[in-house]
Amino acid sequence: MHSQTFTLFQLGWRLSYSHDLTLQDFEAGYPARVVGVHRNALSVLSARGAASVILSAAVEPAITVGDWLLLEMEAPRVLRLLARQSLIARIAGSEHRLQPIAANLDTLFIVTSCNDDFNLSRLERYLTLAFEAGVEPVIVLTKADLCGDVGSYLDAVRTIAPAVACVPIDATSTACAEPLAAWLGGGQTVAFVGSSGVGKSTLANTLVGSAARVTGGIREGDARGRHTTTARGMFALPSGAWVIDTPGMRELRVGAVETGMNAAFDDIERLAVQCRFHDCRHQGDRGCAVEQAVAAGAMDGRRLANYRKLQREAAQVARSTKERREHDRHYGVLNRHAQRLRREKKGRDY
Ligand SMILES: Nc1nc2c(ncn2[C@@H]2O[C@H](COP(=O)(O)OP(=O)(O)OP(=O)(O)O)[C@@H](O)[C@H]2O)c(=O)[nH]1
Ligand SMILES: [Mg+2]
Ligand SMILES: [Zn+2]
């Protein structure tokens, strides 16, 4: 575990988190940041140092890496999950549960390689996720050293996200720290997402290694800076930034991401205003400005198809969320009923 201690601000604390806390809260507990999630326990860091928190029961909503908790003063127990400033989550399983990936990020590094992994529709998906969370996306193009034509990849990204930074790197080289430095300042939190094998862990290790050599803070091979690069962990770069390396995801299903889609597909949204019908589905509808743009070659048909696909997914999730809410409400009523019976019984006993 980290032997170092950090101030709250070094841990990424923002004043806005305190809005969620009362004076009583500060008397009962103290804030700590989740740096590791295990099956029945959490690793946390706070101004008091490192601690392990045993989770006694399933906590709803599921706590994730990057979360801020209020821990009990006397024992490392969770009093409360502090309101998240951002959450990257995906939809998992047939029940469409929201599965948190990382919380309280400043930046999302969307990692893809200059090879067969590169896929504009997948990038649009990740961009939607970042915009939905209100987190700045940066597209990191790895394996640029193995590619003879990096320019064509940069051009392709520009067609879907002209305002998003796109940084080609060789993740195995210490030189990659420099073009990424703007997002890796002290107290900044960045998560790496992308398919398996694109170089997320390689980049994480290089950033730890290169920065360590620059500052001389951590010896080569020292376990301190390296050991949390496991499945669900967050660790500090010697620059003071926090990195969350995630395992590659085979599929990334998004939830109800209307805000994110509006931002990721702002060109389509702008055109849609000119469609004849305000509820135009941009799919064979009469007077559709978006389809006209595709026919005229001003809009990529692939992009429109991907937009529709994400919309369908979001609608499907919204439907099943409603079903689940009804289900939960039903069981909630049963639970409350059972609790009242227990209380009444208890009342009689005493
Ligand atoms: N030449 C070169 N090789 C790279 C680069 N980035 C990653 N690699 C290699 O690609 C392989 C996979 O890299 P990882 O860092 O394990 O990929 P990952 O994204 O963490 O994969 P998962 O953990 O499965 O999600 C390793 O052999 C790396 O050395 C790069 O920019 N240039
Ligand atoms: Mg990895
Ligand atoms: Zn339309």
Which key features would you list for this structure?
5-stranded antiparallel beta sheet, binds zinc ion, SH3 type barrels, globular, disordered C terminus, Rossmann fold, binds magnesium ion, 10 helices, binds guanosine-5'-triphosphate, Ribonucleotide Reductase Protein R1, domain 1, 350 residues
Mean pLDDT: 85
Task: State the low-pLDDT regions, or none.
Answer: 211-230, 346-350
The proportion of strand residues reads 15-25%
Q: Which strand order spans the largest sheet, edge to edge or round the barrel?
A: 10-9-8-11-13-12
Rg for CA atoms: 23 Å
Assigned CATH architecture of the largest domain: 3-Layer(aba) Sandwich
CATH topology of the largest domain: Rossmann fold
Q: What CATH first level of the largest domain would be assigned?
A: Alpha Beta
Number of strands: 13
Can you tell me the number of structural domains? 3
Helix and strand content put the structural class at alpha/beta
Spatial shape:
globular
CATH H level, superfamily name of the largest domain: P-loop containing nucleotide triphosphate hydrolases
Number of separate helices: 10
Walk me through the topology:
Elements: H1 15-18, H2 23-28, E1 29-37, E2 41-46, E3 49-54, E4 68-72, E5 78-81, E6 87-92, E7 97-103, E8 107-113, H3 120-133, E9 136-142, H4 150-160, E10 165-168, H5 177-180, E11 189-193, H6 200-215, E12 233-236, E13 242-245, H7 258-264, H8 266-272, H9 289-295, H10 301-349
Parallel strand pairs: 8-9, 8-11, 9-10, 11-13
Antiparallel strand pairs: 1-2, 1-4, 2-3, 4-5, 6-7, 12-13
Helix pairs in contact: 3-7, 3-10, 7-8
Bound molecules: guanosine-5'-triphosphate, magnesium ion and zinc ion.
Magnesium ion (MG) binds at residues 200-201, 245.
Subunit structure: Monomer. Associates with 30S ribosomal subunit, binds 16S rRNA.
Biased composition (Basic residues): 337-350
Protein name: Small ribosomal subunit biogenesis GTPase RsgA
